[in-house]
Amino acid sequence: MPSHEAAVAANRFGLGARPGELDQIGRDPKAWLANQLNTRQVLPPELRDLPHSSENVRLFFVAKKMMRQAKKNKDRSRRKMMRKRIRRAFQKEAAAHSLAAVNSDQPFRERLVRFWANHFTVSVRNGKVRPVAYAFEREAIRPYVTGRFADMLLAVARHPAMLVYLDNQRSIGPNSRAGRRRKKGINENLAREILELHTMGASRVYTQDDVISFAKMLTGWTMMGRKSDTPGRFTFRQAIHEPGPKRFLGRVIPESGMREAETAMLMMASHPETAWHVATKMATHFISDNPSPDAIAHIASAFSKSGGDLRATSLALLQLPEAWQPKPMKMKSPAEYVISVARALDTDLNEGKGMVRAQNILGQKPYAATSPAGWPDKAEAWAAPEAMLERLEWGASMAVHAKRDLDPISFANSILGPTVSRKTLTWIARAPSVREAVALIFASPAFQRR
After folding, report:
1. Distance CA 14, CA 72 (A)
2. 102 near 339, Cβ under 8 Å?
3. Angle at alpha carbon of residue 60, lines to 55 and 61, rounded to 5°
4. What are phi and psi of 242, to 5 degrees?
5. Residue 148 pairs with which residues in a beta bridge?
6. Which residues pair with 449 in a beta bridge?
């Protein structure tokens, strides 16, 4: 029988165990997890042929131009075709990313990718984000999950998905050359969310004046336009940058163009409030909905002492006894549940397309969080009766993918280990068919939680 620690490693830190994975983890689950962070970051094979964000931005510009022409010519069918083309490109990427999660032999790293992508949320509810949402994950998140937080923060702020989502390309310094001519002003969205959501949290350390100053520093941070050879690439435009020194967090930052916002973000990345905010989110995601102050302090200390090294911070999480409590403490989100079912059954669900459809049905449409705060990370968001019923019905429908000669008890033990209760095992043993037994496993508290 696999150990409790192996089950925790696969299900709480990973994305759900595949058959036989608990045995592979062996007697040293911490080493199994740590080794995933020690290896060089390699893009999963499912994602290697997907286009760079600039290619998708180019497609978007072309599609928008053709739709305008079609509208002018009253050609509804052509407009519909171009919308479908953009939608299909997004669905292809969503399926590939779901498939990468199911096939991954580094599920802890994959979970960290998803954690940080949710921390730095962009959402396709802003239609202009759709072409670059998954490119954002590949380009601004994945390369940094075991690197420096400051580097990830800068990459995120420069990416077209974030610039468009939070309207920074529309932010113009009122005293800049363009601002004086066009009578435009600053947009505070990106500045406010970097401070409140991405770094320091809802802290009393900064004020509204700091938000405004940071927004002024971010003027000029925009992307190349449709006439560029690399549309969507980050660029700095001095003509729309607010001139003059800015006061931020009690310090005067002299005028230096693009470097002003970089200096401010480095200040935020190394601030104790950021360490505590990041640690709180990590502890809430990996330990429980209400982690102890001691656990948060331990993670925050590792973050600060390492200079925001995310590998060191993640390894510190593994040293916490709270993180290894045998009882599953976290309710799986719909996306986590869908991926864990697919991993347990060792199926790609129609090359990932089935997983995307399932997430839509269960209320967590890929990259469609309702606010910049991202998807919620507590049970109360996902445990409503109607939502649970839909989840149970979907899980039961997936039992058809189980092999006919599967032994349900062995299957339950192989993916859940000792976390599955005797009561659940009794019900599984009494099930009249393999399919109904597997449905009971997917409905069990041990599988619903991690």
Report:
1. 51
2. yes
3. 100
4. -70, 120
5. 309
6. 331
Tokens of 198: 């991405």
Closest CA to 176 of 237, 242, 220: 242
SS3 120: coil
Give alpha helix (H) positions in 159-239. Answer: 160-165, 177-182, 189-193, 208-218
The predicted model gives 306-319 an average pLDDT of: 98
User: At 320, which amino acid appears?
Assistant: L
At residue 310's C-alpha, the angle toward residues 307 and 316, to 5°, is 95
Contact criterion met (CB below 8 Å) for 374 and 119: yes
Closest CA to 153 of 369, 303, 364: 303
- pLDDT greater than 80 at residue 361: yes
Cα separation of 137 and 156, whole Å?
9
Between 42 and 315, the more confident residue is 315
Report which of 336, 335, 268, 353 is spatially closest to residue 303, judged by C-alpha positions.
268
* CB neighbour list of residue 422: distance below 8 Å, 6 or more residues apart: none
DSSP 193-209: HIIIIIIS-S-SSS-HH
Cα 299 from Cα 273, distance rounded (Å): 13
Q: Could you give the CA distance from residue 417 to residue 11 in angstroms, rounded to a whole number?
A: 10
Query: What is the model's pLDDT at position 379?
Result: 96
Q: Which of 193, 65, 178 is nearest to 122 (CA)?
A: 193
* Cβ(274)–Cβ(148) below 8 Å: no
The pair of three-digit structure tokens given for residue 262, joined into one six-digit string:
């970089």
**Do the Cβ atoms of 413 and 19 come closer than 8 Å?**
no
Q: What is the pLDDT of residues 61-87, one digit of tens each?
A: 877 777 777 777 777 777 677 778 888
Q: Is the dihedral of CA 101, 107, 109, 112 positive or negative?
A: positive
Helix, strand or coil, per DSSP, at residue 231: coil
Largest CA distance in the chain: 77
Please compute the mean of the pLDDT values over residues 309-334 and round it to a whole number.
Answer: 96
Digit-coded pLDDT (tens) for 377-435? 999 999 999 999 999 999 999 999 999 899 999 999 999 999 999 999 999 999 999 99
**Angle, CA 198 vertex, CA 219 and CA 204 arms, to 5°:** 90
